[in-house]
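Course assignment 3, question 2. Fill in each field.
Student: A.L.
Task: Predict the tertiary structure for the chain below.
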Amino acid sequence: GAIGLALRLATFISAALVADRARGHLDRRHGRHLVAVRNGICYSEALPLLRRGSHCELPAVWPIGRVRTTRLVPPPAPPLGRRDTAAAFDQDTGPYGCSGDDIDVLFDDESPNGSLENATCGNNPAFSGTHQTHNPAPNNLTAFDGQNPVGIWNFFFMDPVSQDTGTMNEACIVVSSAAVTFDQWVSSNATCSDQLDSLNILNGSNVYVCYTLTNPGDEALVLNSGDWNDSLGNDLSPLEGSYAPGATQTLNFGPFVAGGSSFPLGITNATADVTLTGNSVNFPSSRTLFTDEAASVAVANSPPATGNKPLYLYDNNDLSRVPTAANQAEITFNSGNSRSWTLTPALQSSLDLNTAGGQIPVTLYLRRNGNYGGSFQRDMTLTIAGSASGVIGTTSTSISMDGTSTAYTINVPITGASTLVSGEAITFTFTNNTSGQRGILLDPSDGTNNRSLINLPSNTVINIDSIQVYDQSYATNPAATPVSSIQPGQTAYIRALISDPFGSFDISSATIDLTDPASTLQVDDGAMTLVFDSGTNTGLYEYAFNVLPFAVQGNWQFSVTGNEGTEGVFHTDYIDFPIVAPPALSVVKTASVASANPGDPVTHFITVTNSGSGPASNVHLSDNLSPFTTLNTGSFSCSSGCPGSGVTLGTPSYTMDGGGKIIQWEVDMVGTLSAGGGSFTVQYQVNVD
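Answer field:
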């Protein structure tokens, strides 16, 4: 699932005596990050924010007077990169010497009340409610907004002023979160109960798409009209509306037919996003949370589960995958005679028989010999064996036959080996067991459609072993290296390696379909050329595709079909291949002022523009900071072009020097920067030391 997260932290300091101990609890919600903290997190020198049910315990009494310095330091290396974010409250709560000036304050940058400064004593407590921190940025609590709280944090506070009196009883950190979890699932069932981010499915099957939007945080949110996008064109408007903490809604769509317009053959990457607006005091409508989600569906044609491999009998004792084209001479079997046919050539790779039916059908054209009329019984034995595996099956039967050549189908049970190895020859032996001078005539073929054959059921048939794309033809460079993309205006040479267990001669043809990213079929059953025959079990086929200069850019689908023999058995496979023009990126960095004095804030703007003809993915930004400035880590934003340019701002990470000061930041942009002028601007703030 995808999750958007914003955090609001505040410290709570109280002079009231506490009970034996105080306890805070942590709750992890579904999604990528920790989302919510319940009841506050009490002080601990090493504060764990790690797992469900974690808590911290607080000693009963600590000294308290004026809180001079309070600082929260995050983990040295949290899961998403190091963040050295700290907020210090340099707060003097005098005047000195007051009695009963207890402090009960929630520090909150968003408080309508200003910071505390020398309030009059005499009240108990002297300070209460919510107040802003004493110092401005970068010491404000907004430095923690958007931070991932998972890890070990250290919370320090101290009172270095010598006039202090009293006891410091309690100091807590309250994490207030606004969060959204958005899931998009694909499934073969209507409820998406299997919750899949990716689905592999066969052509013609049903596909369902489901969406779930949840508010796991502490602040109310709202999904306004149109604040969502879906690449599949599904209507997500039923998700619109208010989301109180804990609220959730689900939408299901389907069925879609795999191989249809929504999910064609190949891989379809579906994306969706939502932007929720704040709907509470702490997270008002001026603030938003954006999150996106992706799912993929791969639709494939599988190899045929089974395929019949007819083996044809020739009068020269050959057993062949090639159908007889000429009339073959009848073969006479006198009583007690046998004859064997041997597969030529032998198997070129291993073969698994399909034993589901338990038998091998053998069709023979037989008649009795002699010129006398009537039908007479003939006894015979049929045996199928492998030169390495031994007997596969054998059977004896009796048939009443006359003098007319007639097709008889005899089922030979599979009782022996079902896996034949490469190089093995299959033999078929026919024996006339009839007693006396009673002969049998076997006709291999009459030269038309009447052919004697073994209809071998096989799980190993023709297969597309690989599909690769080159920028050179096989004739030009047989050893060329495959390319990962092709540009408009170039020629793509698509090569398919196809195998068949009986040999490359059994591959009758190969064709190709080319479909552009708009699901338009650009090439339909294009004939591929055999450019290399291994002489064993494989053939290499090639198709030259001249890509137009203004071809639709994106992932094309190259679908290859290999055909075997003459029986209509085939296999289809595909690849998704990018046809894209290269991007051309430019980066411009500017500052809000030309010069600045110590203590002054300076905002930097980094604008990235793609003036190329192709989109840019995996855009990564990094920037080295001046040693005379301090970065405000809470100031990062994408001030323009997000998501209009196709990208959104990822999570920054930081590099520090030996003294713990940030000297470099870097961030991965999420999404793909559009071509032809797509542009975005990232801004951040530093303070001059």
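Instructor remarks: The chain has no helices and 50 strands. The chain has a mean pLDDT of 79.
Grade: pending
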